[in-house]
Amino acid sequence: PQGSEEAKAFVNAFLKRSMPKMKDEAIQDILTRKAVVLEHYSKKKTKQKKKKTKGFTAKQRREMRLFEIEPEQQRYAIFLPLHELWKQYIRDLCHGLKPDVQPHVIQGKLLKADLHGAMVTVTKSKCPSYVGITGIILQEFKHVFKIITKEDKLKVVPKLNNVFSLEIDGFISYIYGSKFQLRASERSAKKFKLKGTIDL
Asked: Where does this chain mainly localize (predicted)?
């Protein structure tokens, strides 16, 4: 064990190292009160910023041809199972498409439903060459439908100035493309208003 003098010298040296900015008189003044607060400088922790994973831009998606259907895949028979799945999805959505269900209720649900796999026909158009095109919707974009026909031809049909009919279990619904120019993800949140007359 150290003697009192050695202990005193150790404490003085320790305090001098711990509080280098203070003078000896001030240290002695603190010791007479028998309460010593040593300064402690904590290191500031630098927060690491989380890197957000960025998706592809529209230009990159076009260059990579992510949404293009290869010619060998453009066959009507390949997408018939998709159409069957879509019909089951609509039946579940509309609780079985029972005859006593009000048409406007089904119509409202179809307006917000996903149409990938639906069988549609162009019934009216300002461009006569589009009338009569029938097939399964493979892709829906804001302004166009991509439809595969029974002849294994992929048709790009604009929504503008076209009326499409959609039939399922005897229920026929009409889609006015000019009022339908939305992405599939946007349609689910949109409120459609009932209108008496709608132009092409």
From this structure: nucleus
Cβ atoms 160, 175 nearer than 8 A? no
Report which of 180, 59, 58 is spatially closest to residue 112, judged by C-alpha positions.
Answer: 180
Residue 154 and residue 143: Cα distance in Å, rounded?
A: 16
Top pLDDT among 168 and 27 is at: 168
Q: Residue 59: pLDDT above 70? A: yes
- Percent of all residues in the chain with a pLDDT value above 90, rounded to a whole number: 31
> Which token pair is 90?
């609509």
Q: What is the pLDDT of residue 36?
A: 56
Cβ atoms 123, 174 nearer than 8 A? yes
Pick the CATH number of 72-189 from 3.40.50.150, 2.30.30.210, 3.40.50.300, 3.40.640.10: 2.30.30.210
Q: Are 90 and 108 in contact (CB under 8 A)?
A: no
CA–CA dist 33, 22 (Å, integer): 16
CA distances from 44 to 37, 41, 49, 51 (A): 21, 9, 15, 21
- 109: its two tokens: 């649900």
Give the distance, in angstroms, between the CA of residue 166 and the centroid of all CA atoms in the same chain: 27
Count of CB atoms situated within 10 Å of the CB of 15: 18
Q: What gap in Å lies between CA 24 and CA 122, rounded to an integer? A: 97
In the chain, domain spans: 72-189
| Nearest-10 crossing angle of helices 4-18, 24-33 | 120
